[in-house]
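Per reviewer request, we include the raw input and output of the structure prediction for the construct analysed in the revised manuscript.
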Amino acid sequence: MVVHQRVQIFTVPKEARYLLMTRFFVGSSAVIGFFYALTLTVATKATLLYNLQPIFLAVMAYIFLKESLDLIDMITLIGAFIGVAFISLKNDTENLEISYFLQVVGISL
């Protein structure tokens, strides 16, 4: 005679349900915001800004969680922001060679 036990595969403790629902709403709003940004701008800029999450996470961890940032971390964050600024510049300048040069510098940073 075989006895089958009912096994619950997905169980969440009652204390963690609030955090799980918060994570669900924050994650869903981030994806919805990304697709809304695609309707307002070109896909390359929206994807570029969306992929800046690790940089914003490092800055917010420094501010709110009081995590330490070394000098090399600060230089890297500043370089990443400068690179994004150079890449996201519009090409409406009169001298397009300078604009393309800034974008190449931004990509290399």
